[in-house]
Amino acid sequence: MLDKPADELVMEDGHVVGVRSGGETAKCKMVVCDPSYVPERVKKAGQVARCICLMNHPVPNTKDSASCQIIIPQHQVGRHSDIYVCAVSASHQVAAKGWFVAMVSTTVETDKPEAELKVGLDLLGPVEEKFYSVADLYEPTDDGRESRIFVSKVFDATTHFETTCLDVLDIYKRSMGEDFDFSKVRHTLEEQE
């Protein structure tokens, strides 16, 4: 049932047993989803401000690096949240040759979210185009063990995916009842046989 809307989570005795799309229902033992599928099972936990920037040069003072990750510590700029800067280039197959894409993000703390990104934006040098956005942050209101509906958090301000990876590991533990065992991960075709 790829590329179909999820119209309803089918419940029996307090836990999910299927997902309905139009006249079809896919049976299941659990659902793992993001908050947009179950707005009644999440609560707003804040907001994140982001600015995606298009540049025709690398980030200054990075020795012309094709990519970089900069974290501006909260205390350095008198905030409660860090400011994150991430830049990538054509060498990552995300921009045309000679172009760079940078993202500056932080957790919103004031009624002027664009201004909260200024310290990070100032590190980029001249920017050809900027795209600002503010998005709500949601987190699940329960752990999903009873309903068998395991809801992720949404992407926060971090640009290095640490919190997202921790969320995935947490969902795995809640849904499977045990920690993910990284020692079982196979890295080569020979290991998989």
TrEMBL record:
<keyword id="KW-0343">GTPase activation</keyword>
<comment type="similarity">
    <text>Belongs to the Rab GDI family.</text>
</comment>
<dbReference type="InterPro" id="IPR018203">
    <property type="entry name" value="GDP_dissociation_inhibitor"/>
</dbReference>
<keyword id="KW-0963">Cytoplasm</keyword>
<comment type="function">
    <text>Regulates the GDP/GTP exchange reaction of most RAB proteins by inhibiting the dissociation of GDP from them, and the subsequent binding of GTP.</text>
</comment>
<dbReference type="Pfam" id="PF00996">
    <property type="entry name" value="GDI"/>
</dbReference>
<dbReference type="InterPro" id="IPR036188">
    <property type="entry name" value="FAD/NAD-bd_sf"/>
</dbReference>
<dbReference type="InterPro" id="IPR000806">
    <property type="entry name" value="RabGDI"/>
</dbReference>
<protein>
    <recommendedName>
        <fullName>Rab GDP dissociation inhibitor</fullName>
    </recommendedName>
</protein>
